[in-house]
């Protein structure tokens, strides 16, 4: 058995759990403590997040997309395959080391997607870009932390609470899509998404992309134009490792 080798550690700005980049042969893994966040051999659900969104943007040749989380680039690559030549993709990545890994030890995983003229990678909290102005995007894709029940830092919760979801709706153009990746189902989050002014579809997608093994969850919320339910107070959610 080939042992895992620790290549690098990335500090999360503002505190939280550090990320570790590990390698075993041609397999790479990014961990938060002992929890695996992503692996280059299990990228099916991350790619599906973008592919399913792009399918719903076919009538928008100049679509503007915001991706929260660079990861190993699987969502970005799938987005570029599904979008037209006049589309634009902004990628927000909070952890500087993740961007460095994309140009360094993971360069072969990313291929040439970072050099695509449609791509703008920003070292930023995606929440800041969401708040930049109304109607900025045709789609917002969140592959941040481990989904609504995060592991890296508590402040990521603000992306998925009532306020964060309604802010995302505000940042979308009419009929725009909020697509969210999660490591596990979350009925409370799905209900919250519906109450925040989205028509919601839920898909269970195999992590491997080959129709076997564990499944992750992708929610696709299409912005509706009807009234939005009043925000409800939410108690703090405990962190649970999976």
From TrEMBL:
**InterPro entries on file:** SAM-dependent_MTases_sf
**Source superkingdom:** Bacteria
- Keywords on this record? Polyamine biosynthesis
Q: What organism does the record attribute this protein to?
A: Methylobacterium brachiatum
Carries keyword Iron-sulfur?
Answer: no
Annotated region (Disordered) at 206-242
Keyword Metal-binding among record annotations: no
State the name under which the record lists this protein: Spermidine synthase
């Amino acid at each position: 058995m080939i042992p895992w080798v620790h290549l690098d550690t990335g500090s999360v700005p503002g505190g939280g759990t550090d990320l570790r980049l590990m390698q075993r042969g041609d397999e790479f893994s990014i961990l938060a403590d002992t929890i695996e966040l992503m692996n280059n051999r299990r990228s099916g659900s991350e790619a599906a997040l973008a592919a399913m969104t792009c399918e719903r943007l076919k009538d928008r040749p100049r679509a503007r997309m915001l991706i929260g989380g660079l990861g190993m680039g699987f969502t970005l690559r799938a987005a570029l395959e599904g979008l037209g030549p006049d589309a634009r993709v902004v990628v927000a990545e909070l952890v500087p080391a993740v961007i460095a890994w994309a140009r360094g030890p993971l360069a072969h995983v990313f291929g040439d997607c970072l050099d695509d003229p449609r791509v703008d990678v920003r070292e930023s909290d995606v929440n800041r870009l969401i708040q930049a102005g109304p109607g900025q995007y045709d789609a917002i894709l969140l592959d941040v932390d481990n989904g609504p029940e995060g592991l890296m830092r508590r402040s990521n919760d603000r992306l998925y609470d009532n306020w964060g979801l309604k802010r995302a709706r505000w940042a979308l153009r009419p009929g725009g899509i909020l697509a969210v990746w999660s490591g596990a189902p979350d009925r409370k989050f799905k209900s919250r998404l519906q109450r925040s002014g989205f028509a919601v579809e839920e898909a269970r997608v195999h992590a491997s992309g080959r129709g076997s093994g564990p499944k992750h969850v992708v929610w696709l919320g299409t912005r509706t134009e009807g009234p939005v339910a009043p925000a409800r107070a939410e108690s703090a959610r405990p962190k649970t490792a999976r």
